[in-house]
Structures are given as C-alpha cells and as structure tokens.
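Appendix C reproduces, verbatim, an entry submitted by the partner laboratory led by Prof. M.T., so that reviewers can inspect both the input and the predicted structure.
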Amino acid sequence: MRAIIVAVGSISGASVGAATPGAEATPEPRTAEAVAVAGGSWDFEVRLDGKPIGSHRFEVAGEPDARTVRSVARFDVKLLGLTVFRYRHEARERWRGDCLQGLQSRTDDDGKPIDVDKSFGPRVPSTASPAPSTLTSPSAPPAASGSTSPAASTAGTGGSDCLMSYAYWHPALVRQQRLLNPQTGEVDEVRIERLPDASITVAGRELEAMRWRLTATPPVVAGKPAERQQLTLWRARSDGRWVGLDAVVKGGRMLTYRLR
C-alpha cells in the first residue's frame, strides 16, 4: 500500500483507465496561497469502503524558506476482528520555498520495510521501487544524493527547476507535472485536471469544495510499466484548505480521507 500516494505522496495499487478530460477551469481562490504560507496541521480519518481503518496526519511548520513537513499514517484492515492488513508510514521533509530539499521516510507495508533518505540539489533523479501492493494511501533540481532500502533502488535520472512531493496541502501542487513519492523515493509523471465543484461532508458539515483529478504514472520497474493511479483531491471552496482525498484501489474498493 502507498498511503494514498502517500502520499498521500502516493496512489499505488489503484487500477484505472485513461484520464478523461473533464474540466472546468475555475481559478483557485487567492486565499489558498495563505494556507500554504501559514502551514498548520491536517488530521484525516481514513476509511475503506466506508469503514474506519486508521488515520493520516500531516504537520507543516516553519517559514516558507525553511519549512518542515512531518506525516504519519497508520492503517489496520480487519476481517472478523482479525487484522488482515497492516500499514505504517512516517516521513519527514525539508522544503525551501516551493522546492523539496530533503526527505527521510520509513514504511512498513504489511511486513515489507521500505526506507528512503534523499537530499536534493539542482537536479533530482527518478527512482524505482517495489511493485505496488493492494492499497495506496495517496512532490527537479541538477543532482540528488540519497538512498533507499534494498527494496527500492535508484534507476535513471531526470529533472526540472524544482520538485514537490505529493504535498496536497500546497496550493501549487495542482500545477505540477512530476511529483516525488515519499514512500518509494520515485518520481511519478502526473496529470492534474480541474473538475466541477461539488459538496463534501467533513466533520459532520457539508462544504462546497473544489476538486481535481490527479492521474499518476510511476516509472517503469524491471521493464514492466506500472499501472496508472488516480485520485480526487478536495479543497474547501471558502479558503482553499485541503479537506479530502478519494481513490479507487484494487478490487474496486474505495479509500477515502476526510479531515477531522
């Protein structure tokens, strides 16, 4: 599982078809920029087919030129009272402005450990990782140094002026074409489309929200192209705050994040 592309820097294990053009090009509210500058915390309840399976918390701190991000995900899928799937993920990121400068993460994907430790200079490499598991949790400057565990090895290079992780809290995420997956250390190609606004229930209240469809294509692993993965990002229309994520994972099951 990747915490909804852990993210949340992650959608893995989701089987999707081609992304369809969808979109209403409604601009984001200017107040969304203030959300990113101010930082803050986001504590999500995570459900699978409507049943609670855990939580995913994000904490953003510091000034824009020296920001830190910490995320912690804990999922337990149970059947008849027995845990049939266990997922743990913790990541720490260092940012300068809109650019990711460093990442350390540790994941226990149902007993399979994955460690990532990277620092980014002017360019960033793409990296390969193990084949995705059944769920996904849910973002390049000229050189990067770092390592992953033996399960996730570096393969290939590529870059642009700046790289983000799957930073759903950041308003500029919806303008990205490449995002770093904090669970695997790999760089995904992404397509992000604006969808029509809709209502969403958050903490017992119905909110008007903006929506985007994000389709991610991970790098080729061992010569076998990975399946595209897709999710829906929700932000409150009133202030741009990130309030939810939806993803259909393997088996047609629905994984959802809702802000508490």
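The radius of gyration is 17 Å. Additional entries are available on request from the coordinating office.
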